[in-house]
Design brief:
Length: 275
Amino acid sequence: MAGGISDEDIQKVRDATDIVALFSEYTPVKQRGRDYWCCCPFHQEKTPSCKLDPSTQLWHCFGCGEGGDIFSFVMKHDGVSFPDAVRTLAQRAHIEISSNERGRGVSQSKRALLQEICQESASFFHNQLMRDPSPQAAAAREYLSGRGLGGSVPNDWNLGFAPGNQKLVNHLRGKGFQFNDMVEANVAVSRNGRYQDRFYNRVMFPIIDTTGNIVAFGGRVLDDSKPKYLNSADTPAFKKSRHLFALNYARKHTENGFILCEGYMDVIALHAAGF
């Protein structure tokens, strides 16, 4: 078992993934005899030097020396751990896997549902920031602009505004989501038998995993309320010890190392400045 994923599920994903078809999604592949060749996705070359062996489901580049199986390819290409590579390929092959986290099984479909709720919540927050004429939303836009995060930045980073007052809960309910799933996704809370928005009157920063799924949020207040930042707690789709804000962007530019920042706005400002 790796990362809570059973050996049986790993083998299912391995059996369902053809290495030639996988590489063909990233680079042109040509057959020579029983082997297949392509230009290596990990270094610049004009003549194909990367060999794919469909009989063993292994690959090797004679140019840079990289090689391995389908999982090592995804790990290197996407900059993810082995369990996340398995989940990525499972999603590609439409295979549901179960992950034993915190002593209980978490199905792939449950994780996908929570990600869908987070995605819809992010769209709602972004629409509120960009289009809501209320004074509160206008204040959020002015705040971001005053911090140098105006112009195209809110669109580039899918920033948002959480109005509260059950507006998100009502929006998600209108989309067919259940209250208990909203709570599990950590975008809603239950108080005295009523379901309410977890985030309110905050600028919202979506947290995206390395496969492009929105899994959590950070929210900053616009006044002196406490806490200044309210962040998502751990959920079956999000682990604070495993996810890092903007890693999905930074992993594409690893040649000069990484700059680690404390705050969301620091990260965005550095990216906007070309770092």
